[in-house]
Specification:
This protein has 585 residues and is mainly alpha-helical. The chain has helices at residues 36-40, 98-107, 116-123, 129-160, 165-190, 194-222, 228-232, 235-267, 272-303, 306-334, 347-354, 360-376, 381-390, 400-408, 413-441, 443-466, 473-504, 510-534, 541-564, 568-573, 578-584; strands at residues 3-4, 18-19, 28-30, 56-57, 83-84, 110-112. The chain crosses the membrane at residues 164-185, 197-220, 232-250, 379-405, 411-434, 446-468, 474-491, 512-535, 541-564.
């Protein structure tokens, strides 16, 4: 879709009339493209309250250095430019004076100007709705297969060996691969065509899943009961660890490309409500896949043995590849080939250099350094760091540590199950709340509200825990309810924070910055995992809970401080956000 940068042409001349408002009838702004005056002068100063219909306005690159204005050619002699004075949210609806109408009709071509209601409708309308629906289908199917496998391999290893160490090692190296490999994969995706990269990543993910399934099936059929040390040195287990690490990295790359790049192009960079709704839908599909994937594999286990279940999962993986490739092509075709982004001539050499196996260590270190430098220079850095901080909350959240605490205290399994289910429901509800919140107060205030809400409720949960009355039913329910309700704020910020980063990061760096953020988040999870290993006694849960609340409170403080002390870059980036529009008035 063509992108047009709206610009205001300001000039002073004795003959220049002051023009205000619309033409009679449908509001129209007339410009004559053949005029040498108009073609000679193009300003880079974007007028924030002029909205033009039937064009896509790209505001990502309109704020240049003032010195760039000097590069424009001078006006031809004797050329006068009509000045358009824009007041209010939209142009005044009064018609041109009769004595000026002839002159303006001669000097202008028609461009319709939207009313405020039409602007809101446009903001909620995706740029490529058919492409978004195809994206949802691809995301749903691919994520469902991935979640099915994420439940299958730990269950198979648990049956194979009673210790939790094999599962922990596979998971650790998976997170380590994300931490080390995400920057280089993100950089590669930013310099490689989207559709071929999507096809290649799907091929890698399916291939590594099949290799992992084959290794587990082999072990179940041939490996007997062995000690933990012997198991970790078996060739099949080493192959499983390597394949699992590569599969995790490929899956992460696919998620980053669809959640940080594709959805922005299909929803529209300057359509905040449509983008918020698309982000919310992707989060709903993710939560749905997590629940359905585990349920489907659990249902298979009740009727068949583990080897048969793994074979069924493998057959589903094989069938998924051509379907995902077809859906990728469909997304591009129904969105007028919006994913066929242009690449600079140097991109091919960059891709070849990054794929050179002889320079893998050098390229990896260089990509991490380059990714970090780009990451810390982003205008929306505080919003991204807040997302990273939330990953430190491993104690006061549904997960293995919380489940271990509740079981250790003798809590009924039915209550534990109800708690997990309630957290999932709250996450799903948050995806509906977030898009409505963005529409009402804008993405910046919506992000602050989500973080403050989560920090407040987790503080209540921590206070109840330290009160020492967890053995009583009422304090226990307050503790669990506070954590479950805090998921509203967590998932709301997850949706809103993603949109803030989507808005602030240029499309050419979306995968690099997204990969770097996930890499740092994986490091945060590794740090908390190490602390949990050190403080492995349940009596040390209070220490982990304090760290969790502190990280969430720190994220809220950082984001609110960034919101309360905006820079000029921040104001220009979120020029349409109600927070800055109210300040301007």
């Amino acid at each position: 879709m063509g992108m047009v940068t709206a610009a205001a042409l300001l000039a002073s001349s004795p003959q220049t009339p002051l023009v205000r408002g619309y033409l009679t009838g449908l509001p129209r702004l007339r410009l004559r493209p053949s005029s040498p005056c108009v073609s000679a002068l193009r300003s880079n100063n974007f007028v924030q309250r002029c909205y033009i219909a039937n064009v896509e306005v790209d505001v990502s690159n309109v704020n240049k250095e003032e010195s760039a204005f000097d590069d424009h050619p001078s006006l031809p002699p004797g050329c006068s430019i009509p000045v358009v004075n824009i007041l209010g949210d939209v142009l005044d609806s009064s018609p041109f004076p009769p004595h000026d109408s002839t002159q303006h009709h001669a000097d202008f071509e028609e461009l319709p100007v939207l009313s405020e209601g039409e602007q809101q409708t446009l903001a909620a309308t995706p740029a490529h709705p058919a492409g978004l629906y195809a994206l949802y289908a691809s995301y749903l199917f691919g994520n469902l297969v991935e979640q099915l496998w994420n439940f299958a391999w730990p269950a198979a290893l648990a049956i194979l060996h009673p210790s939790l160490l094999p599962v922990a090692i596979v998971g650790f190296f998976g997170k380590l691969s994300v931490f080390l490999g995400a920057p280089i994969v993100g950089k590669l995706m930013d310099h490689f065509p989207r559709i071929p990269m999507y096809t290649g990543l799907n091929a890698v993910q399916v291939a590594t899943q099949l290799v992992s399934a084959a290794m587990v099936i082999y072990a179940l059929k041939n490996a007997g009961r062995t000690s933990t040390s012997d198991l970790l040195l078996r060739p099949w287990f080493i192959v499983l660890v390597i394949a699992g690490a590569v599969e995790r990295l490929a899956g992460l790359a696919l998620g980053v490309s669809m959640e940080r790049d594709w959805v922005v192009l299909l929803a529209g960079t300057n359509r905040p409500v449509a983008l918020a709704q698309a982000n919310a839908m992707l989060n709903r599909l993710d939560l749905l896949c997590e629940t359905v994937g585990a349920s489907v594999f659990g249902l298979l286990l009740t009727k068949y043995d583990i080897v048969t279940c793994l074979k069924v999962s493998s057959a589903l993986m094989i069938c998924s590849f051509p379907i995902l490739v077809m859906l990728g092509q469909l997304i591009n075709s129904v969105s007028c080939h919006a994913l066929d982004s242009s690449r600079t001539p140097s991109d091919e050499s960059i891709c070849a250099d990054l794929l050179d196996v002889r320079k893998i260590v050098q390229n990896g270190l260089s990509s991490i350094k380059h990714g970090w430098n780009e990451y810390k220079q982003q205008t929306v850095l505080p919003a991204s760091v807040a997302t990273v901080f939330l990953n430190f909350n491993v104690a006061l959240a549904p997960g293995a540590i919380m489940t271990a605490l509740l079981m250790h205290r003798g809590i009924s399994p039915s209550i534990v199950g109800a708690f997990s289910g309630l957290c999932s429901v709250m996450g799903l509800v948050a995806t509906f709340i977030s898009s409505s919140l963005v529409k009402r107060v804008g993405i910046l205030k919506a992000g602050a509200a989500g973080l403050i809400f989560q920090a407040s409720l987790l503080s209540i949960a921590l206070t109840v825990y330290w009160a020492g009355s967890m053995s009583q039913r009422t304090p226990l329910l307050i503790f669990l309810a506070s954590i479950a309700l805090s998921r509203l704020g967590h998932m709301s910020y997850d949706v809103v924070g993603t949109q803030i980063i989507q808005t602030g990061v240029p499309a050419s760096k979306a995968n690099l910055i997204g990969g770097m953020e996930v890499s740092i988040a994986s490091l945060a999870e590794l740090v908390m995992l190490a602390m949990a290993i050190v403080a492995n006694d349940v009596s040390h849960f209070g220490f982990l809970a304090i760290l969790s609340v502190s990280s969430v409170a720190g994220a809220a403080w950082m984001f609110c401080r960034w919101l309360g002390n905006p820079t000029d870059e921040q104001r220009e980036l979120f020029i349409f956000d109600p927070h800055f529009q109210l300040q301007a008035t």
